[in-house]
Amino acid sequence: MKLVNILTILGGISTTYAMTVQELIKDMGVGWNLGNTLEACGDWINGSTVKQYETSWGNPETTEEMIKGIKSYGFKSIRVPVAWSNLIASDYTINPLLLARAKEIVNYIINNDMYAIMNIHWDNGWFENFATKEEESFTKYRRIWEQISDYFKDVNENLIFESLNEEGCWNTVWNRWSNQGDKSKAYGLLNEMNQNFVDIVRNSGGNNTERHLLLAGYCTDIDLTIDEAYVVPKDDRVMVSVHYYTPSTFTILEEDADWGKAQPTWGSESEVEYLLNDFKKIKTRFVDNGIPVVIGEYGTVTKNKDINSVHKFLKTVAETSLNSGMCPFLWDNGEHFNRKTLVFRDEAIGEIYKVML
Ligand SMILES: *[C@@H]1O[C@H](CO)[C@@H](O)[C@H](O)[C@H]1NC(C)=O
Ligand SMILES: *[C@@H]1O[C@H](CO)[C@@H](O)[C@H](O)[C@H]1NC(C)=O
User: Fold this and answer.
1) How many domains does the chain fold into?
2) Across residues 192-200, what is the average pLDDT?
3) What is the residue range of 112's domain?
4) CA-157 nearest atom, ligand 2
5) For 214-234, how does the pLDDT look when each residue is reduced to its tens digit (9 = 90+)?
6) Is the omega angle on the peptide bond into residue 328 within 30 degrees of 0, that is, cis?
7) Whether the CB of 288 sits within 6 Å of ligand 2
8) Which of the listed residues 19, 156, 160, 212 should we mutate to test ligand 2's pocket, taking the one with most ligand atoms within 8 A of CB?
């Protein structure tokens, strides 16, 4: 065989993905969220440029140095939340400058041999409209994914698309607490969105025919996502996403609120047991059935919290995820990793990840 033919064959092989989704999840290691950045939005923002949005919630413009800084702490994956509606026309055409900026950030990540997850993130709340304006909402959802798929289809397999963030639940359609309403309609909306997402990406060609995809769980809540009403599209390269902020009285409440009493500490035997049981539930439903799980966000506020409890919570979530074959992504709105000095504000948190792999 002529050398040129061998090279052609090798070239052909290199464009098909070598990695299964199970191999991928192992290689993803531990992850970090580039939070409060490309998903920053608000009607008050003078949004004539991408930069005005990107910096509007107080973070500096993202640089490749920040990505290298995160990598130096042992992280191998970065989630990039994006609000696409910031720069979108009335016919849902996304401004090319926003697509280009998102690609630039994704390239910072994959050029450093890390994995990037990119999604549609909250996006100023329009996912609520699926409950009332279903058809129009699906049109918008499809148009956004058609454009992203097309624009990113030549990017290599280190880029993973995520169907949406945690907005896939509609309490006006089905109330999760009182169990009133039409449960199958509520789940049906999310199931259809995830199926639309998979179909659009796969049909767009290029590297998207085999790209690994992440599907949002119902509310990204463990109990609601293991419910049999949640359906995973049939596809060899999909993973499911849930978030972990339990107990919310510890992770979210800085002060007492009408719905709960702020809890300053975490880590008793029964609390750890509760966490392990949560992870076991999600592992049994998905991981053990060949569908890897990504903990797309977890974290805790630090104000009014016992610092040892904070460390223990972050470490326990990350370790339990890895032990269960899942990839954990620390939520960071700018409060953990200092994006100017490129070190963790609390070095003990950075150390948790440095020693993990
Ligand atoms: C919005 O930003 C643009 C570009 O920086 C600037 O020219 C314009 O004056 C700003 N508008 C307001 C109302 O501040
Ligand atoms: C897939 O990605 C690789 C690496 O970026 C690129 O060289 C190749 O052209 C892409 N293939 C397709 C079909 O887009």
Assistant:
1) 1
2) 98
3) 3-354
4) 2
5) 999 999 999 999 999 999 999
6) no
7) no
8) 156
Pairwise pLDDT comparison (203 vs 4), residue with the higher score: 203
> Does residue 315 contact residue 352 with C-beta atoms inside 8 Å?
yes
Whether residue 48 has its Cβ less than 6 Å from ligand 1: yes
Active-site residue flag, 297: yes
State if residue 206 touches ligand 2 by the CB under 6 angstroms criterion: yes
CATH of residue 18: 3.20.20.80
The residue from 166, 167, 319, 351 that is catalytic is 166
What is the Å distance from ligand 1's center to 48 Cα? 7
Output the CA 15–ligand 2 centroid distance in Å: 6
> Which position has the token pair 């945690």?
166
